[in-house]
Amino acid sequence: MHKSDRQQETLRSVAESYEGFIIDLFGVVHDGVRSFPPAIEALGYLRSARKRICLLSNSPRRAHQVANRLHSMKIDMRYYDTLITSGELVFEALATREHPFMPALGSRYLHIGPGELSGLLTGLAFRRVADASHADFVLATGAFGQTADLAELKEAAARHLPLICANPDLSVMIGDREVACAGVVAAEYETVGGRVYRFGKPTLPTYQKALRTMQLPPSRVLAIGDSLETDIRGASQANVTSALVLSGIHHDYLMTRHGFDRPAFEQLCEKLGARPRLVLSSLGLKEVALDTGYEWQ
Hints:
The protein is α/β, with parallel strands linked by helices. It has helices at residues 3-6, 11-15, 37-48, 63-72, 86-96, 150-158, 182-191, 204-214, 228-237, 251-254, 262-272, and strands at 20-23, 52-57, 82-85, 108-112, 127-129, 137-140, 162-165, 171-174, 177-180, 195-198, 221-225, 241-245, 255-256, 259-260, 278-280. The strands form four sheets. It has a six-stranded parallel sheet, sandwiched between helices. It has a five-stranded parallel sheet with strand order 5-4-6-7-10, covered by helices on one side. The radius of gyration is 19 Å and the shape is globular.
């Protein structure tokens, strides 16, 4: 395929080459406040074409909670096959204790994040405590300044407590606001010598689980997301082809009043060590590719 032909690629034309799609939520299907109509249309088209769809989100919530939120945005199970959240991955890991470090994990945890997310482990035999001195581990669902502060984090690191990160993202766009996520806490914890376990994108087990739910090999799947650092890097580690949409976290950096900033894109790809095979301004059937760096399979 000639470069000029590839530059006319759209999601509709590319979809013919894949049987399954791993699709991010925030910045791709919705902005945390409202859904994107073209994205819903795209999901409907893929489902009508009998494509398998796994929605994969770094939301630090249980999957059924996110499903309820999607339903309120008119995105029900007609539009996808499975839904995986990083919060659900944490819940499952702590319920089964199959992760190598978990059998020795105590039952008391210090929560860092919004109060509304403090109940992630409800139903399991764990108890939330108010300070690091009484905790066996740290559970991070959001950023600082809400239920704990940096001093608590330093004390937890000094006591060698493991930190479980329920959302590896550094930030997310909610409406027109950029909101810090638990990934910021995890990164800070590592700088003060703490040990971190991340659940969700870009970790390889997360993508392997998504592939298992679709019962497809990596070569038959396209991953779509708005973050080079999590969505695109994670897909690359799993040998899954990826597409970046610019309706989320990278929009202001890569889309200028003159259009797509290709030099900035190349620089960011180099910095983060990840590159998608397709760049779209948003998730929509008729969106023409802004960049196609590789031949399609």
